[in-house]
Amino acid sequence: MTATPSPSPTAKRVLLAAPRGYCAGVDRAVIAVEKALEQYGSPIYVRHEIVHNKYVVQTLERKGAIFVEETAEVPEGSIVMFSAHGVAPTVHAEAAERGLATIDATCPLVTKVHKEAVRFAQDDYDILLIGHEGHEEVIGTSGEAPDHITLVDGPEDVENVEVRDDSKVVWLSQTTLSVDETMETVDRLKEKFPQLISPPSDDICYATQNRQIAVKQMGGQADLVIVVGSKNSSNSVRLVEVALGAGARDAHLVDFAEEIDEAWLEGVSTVGVTSGASVPDVLVEGVLEWLSTRGFEDVELVKAAEESITFSLPKELRRDLRAEAAALGSAE
Ligand code: 0CJ
Ligand code: F3S
Fold first, then answer.
1. pLDDT tens readout for residues 309-330
2. Which pTM value belongs to this model?
3. Closest ligand 2 atom, residue 26 Cα
4. How far apart are CA 166 and CA 137, in angstroms?
5. No. of H helices and E strands in the chain?
6. Which residues are recorded as binding [4Fe-4S] cluster (predicted)?
7. How far does residue 127's CA lie from ligand 2's centre (Å)?
């Protein structure tokens, strides 16, 4: 007698996005806090979360960093570091007035947008800054040319936009937006202002773009996409939206594996996993482990791009590290 084969359970697999996690600007900013703590000792004050990730902030707090929202909270004579998202010139001025030593961990790709804003404002353009209202980066960029910049918070906001001279208008953007939604906003702006000019180079950074491309590649095949990242991380939140837009049946943002709800796995055979640019990979490893204990052991990489870009540490820190190395050398 031949046994009737029982139906094989649906194969469970994980699609793991690459690239995911830390970008060059985040890596630099987090290392800058660690090096500053080693170099100058604790406490180092950091204005705003150095990057928008709970785990990173908690880890640095344990090492002696103190996070504040305003420069006014930093005791005179202390060291304050500015976060990767950048600050307005008024913040630099306030720190100088209070006699604070500053270390600027603004991502160089955000600084690039600040410089574009300054240049177009000098040429008296109206600058339409596409970005999310209240986001730290938008506050910093707007502060470079408050009289010339108008915020455009997505396609729906275009109808409210007014300019002084529609032959002299440029759009710039936050670095961590959805590429597709931004293009939709730009298309609508161009309908309204046909002479609108574009930024000299992409403002949405390489890391944001690459993480979205990878999620698009996996999205259509995934029943569920888990994005590791914090709720206030713009680029991480965008990955959830992009996954759903690419056809994933379901997508959720979690800070830690413990936040995954077992119910999300019902009827799921393919889980996509990725993480935002401010997320250390140890948190993704936690999610992969959690999934493997539920039968999702088979992990396939979905590779969208290679990344090799790195940024040198903030110049103030490099100067002091060099001086110390020189002092040590001459003492030998
Ligand atoms: O604005 C930036 C320079 C991005 C920093 C890295 O990501 P995150 O999560 O700290 O910030 P976003 O909210 O801008 O994505
Ligand atoms: Fe910079 Fe983009 Fe990362 S702007 S901090 S490289 S997400």
1. 999 999 999 999 999 889 988 8
2. 0.96
3. 5
4. 26
5. 10, 12
6. 23, 107, 205
7. 22
